[in-house]
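Forum: Protein Structure Q&A
Topic: Joint prediction for protein chains with partners

I've read a bunch of threads here and the consensus seems to be that you should model interacting components together rather than docking separate models afterwards. I'd like to see that in practice. Below is the full input, 855 residues plus whatever partners are listed. Could one of the regulars post the assembled result?
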Amino acid sequence: MLKVVHYINQFFANVGGEEMAHIPAELREGNVGPGLAFQQAFGDEAQIVATIVCGDSYFNENMEEAQKTIINMVKELQPDLFIAGPAFNAGRYGVACGTIAKAVKDQLNIPVLTGMYKENPGADMFKTSLYVVSTKNSAAGMRDAVKKMAPLALKLAKGEKIGASSEEGYMPNGIRKNFFDTERGSKRAVKMLLSKLADKEFETEFPMPDFDRVAPNPAVKDITKAKIALVTSGGIVPKGNPDHIESSSASKYGKYDIDGVMDLTEATYETAHGGYDPVYANLDPDRVLPVDILREFEKQGKIGSLHRYFYTTVGNGTAVKSAKAFAAKFAQELKADGVDAVILTST
Amino acid sequence: MEVNGLKLELGYIFIKDIQFAEKSKVENGTLYVNKEEVKAIILEDQNFKSADVELAKPGESVRIMPVKDVIEPRVKVEGPGGIFPGMVSKVETVGSGKTNVLKGAAVITTGKIVGFQEGIIDMTGPGAEYTPFSQTNNLVLVCEPIESLKQHEHEKALRFAGYKVAMYLGELAKNMTPDQVDTFETPTLVEGIKMYPELPRVAYVCMLQSQGLMHDTYVYGVDAKQTISTLIYPTEMMDGAIVSGNCVSACDKNTTYHHLNNPVVHDLFAEHGKTLNFVGVIITNENVYLADKERSSNWSAKLAEYLGVDGVIVSEEGFGNPDTDLIMNCKKIENKGIKTVLITDEYAGRDGTSQSLADADVRANAVVTGGNANEVIELPPMDKIIGHVEVADVIAGGFDGSLHADGSITAELQVITGATNEMGFNKLSAR
Amino acid sequence: MVKEIERAGIPVVHMCTIVPISLTVGANRIVPTIAIPHPLGNPSLTLEEERDIRRNLVGRALRALETEVTEQTVFEK
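Posted by a regular:
Agreed with the consensus. Here's the joint model:
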């Protein structure tokens, strides 16, 4: 029977939500939370002997310490396989899963597997160094995730040959593997063209190398004369969230007037972001959007001026395409308003 | 009745077996071949000092190497011209009337190595899965050139031997009633617009390898190096208007068989009048000069726009510098507001991590792949070799030590004829 | 969002805690911050001490904006 160790976060272990994201790594016996689903899928072939539960914020803010502790836990257990997540679209969780899985793989030479949604920042970071199964974007996709992850996990544990990404369910990792499709290439091409002509979604069989880097703009010549604008993905909004920006998967952004506002306070502003513990940001929103300091610099002549509008959205599970579209739009407004530079803060 | 455009009825006579016999004929699905008559045809060309003819059938433990070309026997039954116009037949425009096909049979040319890129066809085993010619009943021509025959002459002699034998076999089907008839019709541009005003207009851009010895293609007998991008009816291709003089690397070589059976043409015809209007075919070459590449791709984009199409499928032939032609065609056609889907193959290295194409562009966002040609395959020993085994080490995709003492071969997929075909002939893909 | 602002021709500095993500999304000027729920603060300190940190980080962000870069650059100090 193959031995498996499973890594999950505080939420999936039912310890708590954001308010418990600071808990350090702890070792539990057997399967916890989604581990049960994995265990059922493994049947007699493998057993989750232990589960490591760790808070997402704790992991990300204490990466060295957390990794050391967890590696030692895993080392003692000597499993045949290490599974992390699935993290779906939770950014910190995805980064934690990828980081710890890679550490286990590199340091302990144990086969590892994780899973998350393709837009999870952890995906791009880790899909080329380990197998990352592509999941749906929320925990509602747990069954689908386990269905894909369990068989691949067993293959990895047994040292079997792994096929092409589309066959096995992992994110294309830059290693091209041949496989026999069900239809011949010309037919696939005709179908792809019909989809492309109808503006329907299609998937290319060979993505071009990613070109989307934007060259850095020239530095600001004289910052003491510059108009600086603030933008945030941390979801800072006027108290009451008048425009109802969603706490996750934002469908809009906000543009707010801070003319005459010297400082963001608990009474006047709050955060709409549902992806991090809001307590600190609500108590003092300057901790996410540093209006107080920029006003200070403005008075002291360190900057020319703070732009009267700030832009905000919630970067929690918001589709990349959406965020891109928001920014493309308000970037034009910023330009029209003569903004010289932008400070963008994220949580 | 007057037909505007070209209409061709392809009649298939299904061949399930091939045998040597006293008299060449087709009977009950078996192709009977008189060996001596075939040899005589080959030896008409005095550049050959000897010739042999062998059979290779599906499932047999037979390896054919080095393969130069594969040709399907066809014959004109009705309508102007003859098969392989400008090469073996006169230059009369083909592609209309009736043509019979010995479906399931193929002529394969092989012989002393000419250059680097001839290939391997295994009739059984893992290698057989990668080539369509492990499924055909093959008549293999083993031709030995006279001493000190120049390479260009050798290649030409072998090329013509293949066509002539294919013609000879095709003639056997001339007066037969086909088992199945498929009809293909391309109306003129104006007629087509009237017939299918609602359907998206699609053209096929067929790129032809044109880079010199062992890398050439011929259109009605004209060396593709010397052509300017132009239009051709898809049914002309079915009568052999385009033939192969190349084996770029065996895996992505379009054999004459591939040209005759162009799968993009067939799959577009299958949708013609239903989900799209298959307007026609643009052929364009892949020369070695940058100016030629610019000229040809400018021209194919110009023609695509002129045809008023909404989308095109572009098939490449070969790899390396032709990747630049592929991307140029893609960019320029996309810039005309016409959507493209490209069919190519990949050279992503043995471990699959290298950049698959030599050139790239963000507009090439719809790509079908015939697979990574660098993937290594183990070919087990076969009971019989037709041709010359020792060339394994030097054909493209082979390496020093490819051929093992026991007769097995370790080499890249590159060596297998048609393995990563970029017309989309096969089901092989990659992710 | 950072790339779109950059694309529009405005120099932008990304202040964030998870630097690897910022690198992946393509920010060119990056300033690492304190923690996810309070990138520009530290609730375990006094308000005055927090402001000092904030001043320091924002100052660094401005310096990043004043610095010519040719590739993605993380401003650690």
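The first helix of chain B runs from residue 35 to 43.
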